[in-house]
């Protein structure tokens, strides 16, 4: 499915950055809508927050935190790539970004459960 | 033993309107290159096959094709490296024209858009002195000269251009080769066209569209790094935009 | 699709969000412990100029950053160009900004002055 000329680590890092960014941009309106319930429908907000206690929803939240963290760490790599002198360690840095994001989102999940 | 085995080869046949892969059976030989395979087909099996090559030694940059889905210089690509090792047989090979460029016929693409962008990126040396001026003194070890040296071995084969997905999604994008060339000239102390060049690579199709996916550097047969060159252009264009560039 | 001006905006908002995302990640891990309630969120944010400024800046930066990101994706993947592309970029920016400002207002307005 992934065409041969795309099968290398930095292309996958690009794909992850694009997909996570797209997902975050689509998630933000929902996030903002729910927070605004504090003003328009406080009991609705509490009802929603109770729903998020469900373990499956916690797993989705883990995914959202991972998306934010991986876009953050991946973005740091890109900023460093563009602003600082070239580092030949791009593949290691991209792998480190994924590992860091996984670490942060796991810490979140352990605190959430 | 290798001489007896057969390489199952699919070659793209068609033109700008479209086409399809045609199967050929090519005898496998020692030290055989992908260009040898194409030449065998054209000389022994089907003289109507159109392809392009000149030097056969990795200098001229005219024989690049998609080999098993990856852009490569075919004259320096050994079949043994790319064909896989199908047991008992000679492996499989799929050969297609370079991606991201219009096909003229079979394996020949129109390189005009590629070279037009080379010019559009101000990839041309603009002398700042006349021929009467004394020889310019450039320190070989200076950072600018080192940055230029890192990019000047480009042979214009368009492998990076075919590998780049930004080019695929945006036909206006100047592409890795033209921007790499512009970066070597930005670092050339003798060049007098810097303001025009910074403008050219800051345009809608300029260096800022690059997403640093690195396919250009991944597949460059001369191991150049256009991604790093484009990052350098991004820094210099931002400096120019903010008025920090002299 | 991206000229130097949009590129610069994209990178400046990215730099601006480095401390904001870090802060948001820390708050999420801290706040999720023991479950979320509307009262708990509001007790932290209501009437707080600091949180209002923090999330206000975050909403502004994320709206710009997300709009430019979706612009690049729509141009490259959907082939959108010209007026359509400009309209989409502004539409995404204004939608995110309005919903975001409304959410920040909902959780910071009122409460102890």
Kindly state the number of beta strands of chain B: 7
Q: Just give the CATH class of chain C.
A: Mainly Alpha
Distance linking N and C termini of chain B: 65 Å
Structural class of chain B: alpha+beta
The best one-word shape of chain B is: elongated
**CATH class assignment of the largest domain in chain B:** Mainly Alpha
Oligomer: heterotrimer
Query: How far is the N terminus from the C terminus of chain C?
Result: 46 Å
Model description:
The complex is a heterotrimer of chains A (113), B (246) and C (113). In chain A, helix 3 packs antiparallel against helix 4. Chain A has 113 residues and is mainly α. Chain A has one domain: Up-down Bundle (3 helical TM bundles of succinate and fumarate reductases). In chain A, 83% of the residues lie in helices and 0% in strands. With 246 residues, chain B is of the alpha+beta class. Chain B has 10 helices and 7 strands. In chain B, the strands form 2 sheets. Chain B has a 5-stranded mixed beta sheet. In chain B, strands 6-7 form a two-stranded antiparallel ribbon. In chain B, a hairpin with a 2-residue loop joins strand 1 and strand 2. In chain B, helix 3 runs parallel beside helix 7. Chain C has one domain: 3 helical TM bundles of succinate and fumarate reductases. Chain C has 4 helices and no strands. In chain C, helix 1 packs across helix 3 and helix 3 runs antiparallel to helix 4. The longest helix of chain C has 30 residues. Chain C is elongated. Chains in contact: A-B, A-C, B-C. Chains A and C meet through helix 1, helix 2, helix 3 and helix 4 of A and helix 1, helix 2, helix 3 and helix 4 of C.
């Amino acid at each position: 499915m992934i065409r041969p000329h795309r099968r290398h680590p930095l292309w996958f890092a690009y794909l992850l950055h694009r997909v996570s960014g797209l997902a975050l941009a689509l998630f933000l309106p929902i996030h903002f809508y729910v927070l605004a319930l504090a003003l328009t429908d406080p009991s609705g907000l509490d009802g929603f927050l109770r729903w998020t206690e469900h373990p499956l929803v916690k797993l989705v939240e883990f995914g959202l935190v991972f998306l934010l963290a991986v876009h953050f760490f991946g973005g740091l790599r890109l900023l460093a790539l563009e602003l600082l002198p070239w580092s030949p360690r791009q593949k290691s840095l991209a792998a480190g970004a994924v590992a860091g994001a996984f670490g942060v989102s796991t810490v979140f999940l352990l605190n959430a459960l | 033993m290798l001489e007896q085995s057969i390489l199952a080869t699919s070659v793209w046949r068609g033109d700008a309107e479209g086409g399809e892969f045609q199967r050929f059976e090519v005898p496998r030989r020692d030290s055989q290159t992908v260009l040898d395979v194409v030449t065998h087909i054209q000389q022994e099996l089907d003289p109507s096959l159109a392809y392009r090559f000149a030097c056969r030694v990795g200098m001229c940059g005219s024989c690049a094709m998609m080999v098993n889905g990856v852009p490569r210089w075919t004259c320096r690509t050994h079949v043994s490296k790319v064909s896989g090792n199908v047991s008992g047989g000679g492996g499989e090979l799929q050969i297609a024209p370079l991606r991201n460029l219009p096909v003229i016929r079979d394996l020949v693409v129109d390189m005009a858009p590629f070279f037009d962008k080379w010019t559009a990126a101000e990839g041309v040396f603009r002398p700042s002195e006349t021929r009467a001026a004394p020889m310019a003194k450039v320190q070989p070890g200076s950072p600018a000269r080192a940055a230029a040296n890192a990019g000047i071995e480009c042979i214009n084969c368009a492998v990076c251009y075919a590998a780049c997905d930004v080019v695929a999604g945006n036909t206006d994008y100047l592409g890795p080769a033209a921007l790499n060339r512009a970066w070597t000239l930005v670092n050339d102390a003798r060049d007098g066209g810097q303001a025009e060049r910074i403008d050219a690579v800051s345009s809608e199709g300029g260096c800022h569209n690059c997403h640093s996916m690195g396919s250009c550097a991944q597949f460059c047969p001369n191991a150049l790094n256009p991604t790093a060159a484009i990052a350098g252009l991004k820094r210099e264009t931002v400096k120019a935009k903010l008025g920090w560039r002299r | 699709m991206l000229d130097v001006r949009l590129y610069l905006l994209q990178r400046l908002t990215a730099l601006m969000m480095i401390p904001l995302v870090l802060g948001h990640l820390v708050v999420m891990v801290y706040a999720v412990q023991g479950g979320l309630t509307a009262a708990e969120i509001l007790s932290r944010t209501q009437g707080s100029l600091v949180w209002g400024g923090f999330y206000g800046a975050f909403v502004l930066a994320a709206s710009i950053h997300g709009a430019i990101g979706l612009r690049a994706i729509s141009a490259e993947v959907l082939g959108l160009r010209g007026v359509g592309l400009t309209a989409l970029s502004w539409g995404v920016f204004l939608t995110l900004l309005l919903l975001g400002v409304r959410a920040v207002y909902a959780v910071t307005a009122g409460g102890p002055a």
